[in-house]
Amino acid sequence: MAVIGAVPCGAMDDRVLPFSASFTEEPDGTPVLTTVGDLDAATSPELVSSVEALRPLRGLTIDTSKLSFVDSAGLRALLTVREMVDADASAPTRLRHVNDELRRLLEICGLADAFDEVA
Known about the structure:
This protein has three helices and six strands; from the N terminus they run βββαβαβαβ. It is an alpha/beta fold. It has one domain: Transcription Regulator spoIIAA.
């Protein structure tokens, strides 16, 4: 199931999972965005709006452990979020719990170095 620009990120089944985004904070106050479900053309605006509401940002960690699917629109939304964080604070946008499928999508698109990755 390898399609450039669309990648299943977790369980390989045909369910469409609703998208949600929630925020917590690291001990140092850096926001952590936990994403759940499918990040695609239909849900990408929700991700961007969620982050926009928190601006100005002084860094951001995005937990991708519960993302089930990312397509090119979802990837663009992640890049938009990174640009917002950079514009606010020139601070890094970190991805946490990146699975092999999402990592491969980032590599194929030449974006492997676009985000800092944390365990």
